[in-house]
Amino acid sequence: MAARPTYVDEPARQVPVSGDYEVVVLGGGPAGIAAAASAARHGCKTLLVERYGFLGGMGTAAGVTNFCGLHANVHGDIRRVVHGIADDLLHRIDRIGGLNAPHLVLGKTYAQAYDTAAYKCAADDLLLSKGADVRFHALAAGALMETDGVIKALLIETKSGRSAVLGRVFIDCSGDGDLAAFAGAAFEQGDEDGNTLYPTMMFRVNGVEPVTAGEAWRSIPALMEAAERRGVRFPRKGAIVRPQKHSVEWRVNVTQVKTANGRAIDGTDAIELSFGESEGRKQALAFFEFLRREVPGFGNAYIVDIPPQLGVRETRRVTGLYQLTADDVISCASFADTVGVNGWPIEKHVSGDVEWRWPDIPGSRGFNHLPYWMLVPRGFRNLLVAGRCASMTHEGQSAARVSGGCFVMGQAAGTAAHLAIAGNTSCADIATGKLQELIENDGAYLGRDVA
Ligand SMILES: Cc1cc2nc3c(=O)[nH]c(=O)nc-3n(C[C@H](O)[C@H](O)[C@H](O)COP(=O)(O)OP(=O)(O)OC[C@H]3O[C@@H](n4cnc5c(N)ncnc54)[C@H](O)[C@@H]3O)c2cc1C
Fold first, then answer.
1. Does the beta carbon of 58 sit less than 6 angstroms from any atom of ligand 1?
2. pTM higher than 0.90 for the full model?
3. 3-state class of 381 per DSSP?
């Protein structure tokens, strides 16, 4: 019998052009929302391409339901340090009743929970109000190059078939660096041994009795330890089980999905991802049984949502003109080309646990600047990257990957795309002083007033 082929040839074909834009943003997570909103707000004809039928990225598709990194502990005073587009979006979420008050995290800073439905609707409303177009149910499948370092079009697959979207500047906010990888950009994945942060299948339960449950997030770790002494096994320590806006509903962040050899599931590997989805749901059910059995107030609870996809924290990190490092986060580094700040600590999802490393609190200002150069991939004229796939080391990304930093990077990238188009320059050659002036005028905080 003839050997089965490893490859088959696909005939070359012409594809229709389904859009001609100035700015094309791939991905509708916090980075993509902010990038598309700011590019459109500055008058660029802008398209956001998203594979799902809604915006929010991991924040909705993976059920994260909680904003981190909007605040920092500034010499002992916990302040909101991310503004601009983030303010506009949060205001819209709040207006439709979907935003919780900020809550204390590990006694050091605040995070803020939200409802996914409200986030999706508010993000639609935000982009509509700025005049950006959105192409839902469109999976990016390739990039066409004009010349070396210049992207001509993004190839997308949709129910209407394959097509090309032309653009002058492309912003990769896919979280996975898909567009940059298609275009041949350099990237890294994981630490020096290739280990990425472990993914988590989030889930939410409803029907919790709020008074009985009280501050159950404080007692759950001890209940887990007691159960472990009786032989119960959990995917990881550091469970995050917290109430949502309506305290009958709680989110649960505790699963951890790995391969048979203990490595984190690779979020760019379709076969591993497939295993991760069902394994994540299996772990969610098992932990839910523990909650119902052993945590007061959860006896009549039920699972109201297991989100559309496994929560992937880290895949490709595109190599840019600067790479944000752990030292930058811990030393609260300053950069002349700051476009905003990250106040979230290093939060490493390692095997079986979560490791935290904070800047000196209250000795430091509690945040580092995010420099423009971490958004500019090496060797490209018309490509920017923002969000969790921006240019950071594994540990730098463990901090600045959360929503706050992604909003900051996205807003800066969208505004920088406008400047590159207006000045007919490469993204690397825009005047960073002008970028800073524009984003400050649009409400962003650049963190230059505190040492
Ligand atoms: C389990 C978990 C818990 C977390 N907890 C928190 C938390 O409590 N608070 C917090 O602030 N952050 C949290 N994070 C981190 C945060 O959610 C993400 O880092 C953040 O959403 C990254 O934003 P982004 O815009 O860079 O990318 P993403 O949110 O990943 O968005 C990328 C978007 O691009 C789309 N996309 C990707 N590839 C393609 C393609 N080829 N074609 C079309 N569309 C594509 C995706 O569908 C998605 O909408 C958590 C993450 C995980 C996984």
1. yes
2. yes
3. coil
